[in-house]
Amino acid sequence: MVGYLIRRLLQAIIVVLGVIIIVFLLSRMIPGGEARAVLGPKSTPPLIREFNHANGFTQPLWVQFWHYLIGLPLLHLGYSYKFTEPVWDVISNRLPKTIVLVGTSTALALVIAIPLGVIQVVRRNKPSDYALTGVAFVLYAMPSFFLGTLLIIWFSFDAGWLPVSPPSNASPFAVWTDPKGFIMPVVTLAALTIALFSRYMRSSLLDAIAEDYIRTARAKGASNRRVLYGHALRNALIPIVTLLGLSLPGIVGGAVIVETLFNYPGMGLLIVQAAEQSDIPTVLGTTLVITIATVIGSLLADIVYVLVDPRIRYGGSF
After folding, report:
1. Does some domain include residue 297?
2. Is residue 139 very low, low, confident or very high in pLDDT (cuts 50, 70, 90)?
3. Rounded mean pLDDT of 32-41?
4. Which of 72, 114, 197, 279 has the fewest CB atoms within 10 Å, counting from its CB?
């Protein structure tokens, strides 16, 4: 187990280093150079030379990369010339809002999806199972912008019960302290995740109850309730751990479509705004942050796998 985790850690470091190299090279491949992107199309050659000299762009490429690399632990991700502040300052203002919003919707989806999956297994091949399966398929196939638009039309325009979008200047924790404006974004995000998690839960639990140890427990006289909740459910939750680990990039990166639809100033909307305004340093900075979140999520999933089921033994070569 320890050897596997060490290999996974080394793989993660290699992946992150590779992404750092790609991000650095892309930042140096901006059409016209970063100086023209920052100073604008009307910049003069003297201004461009002065900018390049002041920011070290006249140095050899490997020297620039070294300075970029040692600046990353200090969160030096470049300068956003559209938001006129360092990229990390822009990200740090948006990241907490996204983490709270998407994290809340993910937690809500888990609380609802796991019992739904269990109910479908208990009532499998019955009308309730078919009905829940049909609803899950509809939600899973429904684009988030379509569901969000329907909620806005029904509850904002027609009924007038909810605001069209959350307050843009609200604190990250306003989703808990003043939830009225966040109901529709959270429901939009959670509905799609519930469909995914409930289907995985149903499939995983069905596989678990078909295992030999379940038949052995029943042969020993264990009740159906004990077999289901005491034996099968614990092992059926293991694939959900993987889904949670893989959902970390989404929690950090934000829901691009939902945040744009509801005009919520999180990471998702930041990525859209930076791309529309050709703010390449911000795009590359967010890419690096989301990549690191992806690697961390994968590592956490591997670690939690061992904690929830010590019988798992990892093998294979690096």
Report:
1. yes
2. confident
3. 70
4. 72
